[in-house]
Amino acid sequence: MDEITQVVTSGEIDALASKKDKLGLKGKLAYLPALSIFIMFACGVAVLSHFWNSKEMAEHRQSKRSLADVIQGREALAVERIYKDVFPIRAFSTGLLNLVSFKVFGEARKGLIKGSDDWFFSDEEFSWNRNSSSMLEKHLGFVEDTLSTLREAGVAPILLLVPEKADIYRDKLGSVAMPSSREHYYENVRLRLITMGAPVPDLRKAFLHAREQKPVFLKSDTHWTVHGAGVAARSVAQVLAHRPALKHKEFTLKPEEEIVHMGDLYKFAKFSIFDPFVPMPGDRLTSLSAVTADASLDDLISDEDGGAEVAMVGSSYSANAKWSFEAQLKAEAKVDVINFAEEGKGPFAPMETFLNENLPRQKQLKYVIWEMPLRYFDEVAY
To answer: For residue 29, what are the contacts with CB-CB under 8 A and spacing of at least 6?
Structure first.
């Protein structure tokens, strides 16, 4: 009987304690509306203070404004634009949404495809729309016209078609699959180029073999690694080896200091203040420079007289010394190379500039190596 009494007593105590907790919680919740209003007011004051004291707003206050600007709404529009630019919550909310999308769904901002094992890819290698076929034909037509122009000038073209990173590393795409439209894209475009009569090394085949030793593309970047650029350089050197004699030079490759390269694909993964929650390891990269002995008198005279025999035109794959394509091409082919590649313009615009401005000045030119990433062929503009 005492045990039953003890159990009932304990139960009553627990019930009273639970009721007390509920009353306490209810009392606290009564303050929640007022607290919420206060927090919202404080945030509003902070946002307004941040906006009013921003550098952009200070510069605007110093500018001259007329009464007509105020009446006709131009002043309001100007202030609105500044407010949108400096709005502090914008970066926070955008970063939070990107973080949730990236961590939960494995997706990133437009422009970036998140693969497995910290591999990132450009969505340019997955897109195909109603304009893609017509742009492909347009670019192939430009290539054919360019080859005719070069041959008329007595210059032999060598086309270096760079395969897509997503194609070479399909096993790193994670849950994303290559679209059927790009399943045999490289082979199809390469065959079209071969029918134009120019040598086109099979860089896709070479990359698939070379990736077994070292990566041929950077994980965090759209570009090739130094190793991948070296594979491309050897492919071109093999073509030049079967061509009429060129003036040869011996080049030695000198390694630069190793750096951690933060790839161009990271710019699409914007997490604002949440960056620490998404590690971005970057790629370790050791660039190479081509070093040769002191030039002879004949070499100096030929250089002054526009005597380059091999020119290179293309995109940032060739223009950026980080990837060391030019340096390795010089060493592999044992020839000097004059580089007309440009960053940020793709492969077609630099060639157009070369034909119009540089080709007439290259009196001794025998070969032009045209580096062209496949992913640019179906893009709308160049």
So the answer is: none
Find all residues with CB under 8 Å of 74, minimum gap 6, and list them: 68
Which of 260-264, 313-317, 365-369 has the lowest average pLDDT? 260-264
The candidate with the shortest Cα–Cα distance to 253, out of 291, 197, 295, is: 291
DSSP state of 192: H
Amino acid in position 290:
A
Beta-bridge partner residues of 312: 339, 369
Q: Are the C-beta atoms of 220 and 266 separated by less than 8 Å? A: yes
Q: What burial class does residue 10 get, using C-beta atoms within 10 Å of its C-beta: 0-12 exposed, 13-18 middle, 19+ buried?
A: exposed
CB 128 within 8 A of CB 378: yes
Phi, psi at 202, each rounded to 5°: -80, 85
Q: Which residues are within 8 A (CB) of 7 and not within 5 positions of it... i.e. 6 or more apart?
A: none
Residue 71 tokens, joined:
């009446």
Between helix 226-241 and helix 325-333 the angle, nearest 10°, is 30
Residue 361 · residue 155 · CB < 8 Å:
no
All residues at 6 or more sequence positions from 245 whose CB lies less than 8 Å from its CB, including other chains: none
% of the chain beyond a pLDDT of 90: 50
Q: What is the dihedral of CA 303, 304, 310, 312, to 10 degrees?
A: 110
Quote the mean pLDDT of the chain.
83
What's 13-55 look like in SS3? HHHHHHHHHHHHHHHHHCCHHHHHHHHHHHHHHHHHHHHHCCH
Measure the CA–CA gap between 285 and 265, rounded to whole angstroms.
16
Question: CB count, 10 Å around CB of 237?
Answer: 18
Q: Which residue has the tokens 């007439």?
A: 360
Residue 30 has which token pair? Answer: 């009564």
Give the C-alpha separation, 67 to 60, whole Å.
Answer: 15
Assign 261 to helix, strand or coil: strand
pLDDT digit string (tens) for 103-130? Answer: 777 677 677 888 899 899 988 888 778 8
Q: Rg of the Cα trace of the chain?
A: 31
CA distance 61 to 55: 10
DSSP letter, residue 122: E
| Residues 264, 10: Cα–Cα separation, whole Å | 66
Mean pLDDT to the nearest integer, 64-78? 73
